User: What shape does this take?
Amino acid sequence: MKSMINVSAAVTLASTLLVNAALVNSAPAQQLRVVESDETVSIVSGEKLVVAYNKVSPPAPKGIDPVYRRSGCLHPIRTPQGRVVTTMFPFDHPHQHGVFSAWVKTRYAGKSIDFWDLAGGTGRVVHERVVGKFRDGESAGFEVDLIHRAEVDGPVDVLRERWKITAHPTDGTYFCFDLETEQSALTEKPLLVSKYHYGGIVFRGPVRWLTAADRDARKVKDLEREPSEFLNSLGSNRIQGNLQRAKWVALSGSIDGKKVSIAVLCHTESFRAPQAARLHPTKPYFCFAPCNDGAFQIDREHPFRGRYRYLVSDTAVDAKWIDQQWREWTEKK
Assistant: This one.
């Protein structure tokens, strides 16, 4: 009889532990808060970093020209388990930094300006100031201003760009934050953004996700690589999906053998939504590029606006779940 009671108690205890474990795993993420230092503004969930914004550029690594330093970008972006899905100063394209904003082919005051490739010396985008930090219910975030600066005949501040970064509570299995951007002219002269197949809001993933076909990767002996792949809302891969007008784009891959993914959703209120998305054939980067559909200008009467949502997880891409997230976000009043 005593043995039967002990078995019963053990079963009850085991069941209780399983229930408690399930409750812990399904519990909402810890409170979101904004932390600012001299170098960064970060959003953290409990003690876990969600995303960091760089007010100043980190130093360029050995072997990378300091001209590629960039402030005003998001890095690192982490998964809930702490894996970093962005990079700065990748050896193959050192001008790409985490999530950044840049137009490639533009004209201002009769001059060609490239804000993307910093080595050209014609333009760059820099952090200007932190506007403020905020809480909105359980969400938390900050606003910052960036400057798009032409450097052809001495520095001229052409655009001011306001970023609003807002992180939202989740069930703890993924991180979710929004990037809202508005670019406004600072002078009476407009910036003409020419038709081009890339440029806009960019995401750059880890060097380990360079494909075996990448010509830069082939130059590095014993480069540690892991598989990665693209998927968009139309069900297309990195080749088929290049320049398709997609509601969302997801990049997934392995880090130390563990699956991670990041999906970027484009809101219906964004300029020219659904926007064309440039998916690189061999590198882990993509951008929503409304300039692919033709030239436009940014002036004091016509600012550029975009809204994007980032879903970061320690799992492979789940297209149905991302579709649901996109609908809930865009249909919200």
Q: What stands out?
A: Residues 1-28 have pLDDT under 50 and may be disordered. The chain has one domain: 30-330.
